[in-house]
Amino acid sequence: MKGHSRRQTWAVGRGLLLTAALGATAACGGSPPTGQTGGSEVPRFEPDPLWSEALPNKWVTGQVSGVAVDSRDHLWVLQRPATIPDGEKAAALTPPQAECCIPAPSVLEFGPDGKFLQAWGGPGEGYEWPTSEHGIFVDHDDNVWISGNAREDNQVLKFTRAGRFLMQIGRSGQNKGSHDTENLGGPAGLFVYPTTNELFVADGYFNRRVIVFDADTGSYKRHWGAYGNPPDDAHQFPPRAELVQGPPPLQFNNPVHGIVVSNDGRVYVADRTNNRLQVFELDGTFITETPVAKHTLQAEGTVHHFALSPDSAQRFLYVVDGSNKVVRILDRQTLEMVSSVGGHAGHNAREFFHIHSIAVDSQGNLFLGEVNNGQRYYRYRIVRD
């Protein structure tokens, strides 16, 4: 590791169909895109509120903490049943306290046409389900990875797409800090890089690092902090106003929230509360960083989650900024913002309430999940003129 000197199987309820919106068109101009499989045009998007079908069993979802797209362009949604008002109590009542609203299982799967396929998730034998569901990722072998962000969520879980448990890395309530190589500390983002078959974890809510494991065995490989240097849990950050106005912090701030690895082996890390992203080589060598709405005072920060455009060069990096209600489209090579989607707060179409996660299918369509009182998942289709 190199441094830098400065461095539950059911069917599930329906997601709300209202969606968020097209913000600015391509800032650099040019012809409308014909898709993201080629060409240099900046992609444009429109809300697609009727994409997913109504879900069975009168299920409803709570906060949608994670979304992921698999190799077949199926959408996977991770939601928090416990965030539905009296959700846990309501699920246990017979008859239910209301006909309309039965809490759905945590994990939902949809086909490319929005058809509901299955759901599963929750506590089971042999593993420790997280207290607060957070991240979901489907790897190149269609295994489903789950993380949680409560203080006791010091584990990552691996399942088959049918919900059969495969492996747990870490143990609940056992985090010993950012140099613990066996447990995690509120892990947030997950990404399995196919070339090396390694699991990269943005860890997270109580630790301040990226940590890497073998995706088959779960064995520890390496970890690093900001600028590729060792993480320091004792580091004190200044008050928020001073933080956003001052020099770049030398440590990741809690939470280290999102992570994605590009085809060419660059690791993008969402240092959310520090209002920035950093880029590394696979071994943790620091490459560069860029601020994102640096002077945003809201404590949630600005860099929540990432997705990459599906063209072979992955020209665009999509950055979810939950505080400013916008998806920023960055040129991946220069990290310059070339366009954006959204920028308006609300629960209606063309508005975002609190976007938290993002995924992209092979056609270039965006999928978004909202937490807090957003509690919805939806698609933005790519515009093809």
Explain what you see:
- The chain has helices spanning 87-92, 240-245, and strands spanning 45-47, 59-60, 63-69, 75-80, 102-103, 107-110, 116-120, 133-138, 144-148, 156-159, 165-169, 187-193, 198-203, 209-214, 220-224, 256-261, 267-271, 276-280, 286-291, 305-308, 316-321, 326-331, 337-342, 355-360, 366-370, 377-382.
- The chain is mainly β and 385 residues long.
- It has one domain (45-382): Neuraminidase, CATH 2.120.10.
- The strands form seven sheets. A four-stranded antiparallel beta sheet has the order 1-26-25-24, with no helix packed on it.
- The longest helix has 6 residues, at 87-92.
- The radius of gyration is 20 Å and the shape is globular.
- It starts with 44 loop residues before the first strand and ends with a strand.
SSE order, one letter for each helix or strand: EEEEHEEEEEEEEEEEHEEEEEEEEEEE
Taking the alpha carbons of the first and last residues, their distance comes to: 46 Å
* CATH class categorisation: Mainly Beta
- What strand order characterises the main sheet? 1-26-25-24
Number of strands: 26
Q: Characterize the overall form.
A: globular
The total of helices stands at: 2
The level of helicity is under 10%
Radius of gyration: 20 Å
What CATH architecture do you see? 6 Propeller
| Biggest β-sheet strands, sense, barrel | 4 strands, antiparallel
* Overall pLDDT metric: 89
Number of domains: 1
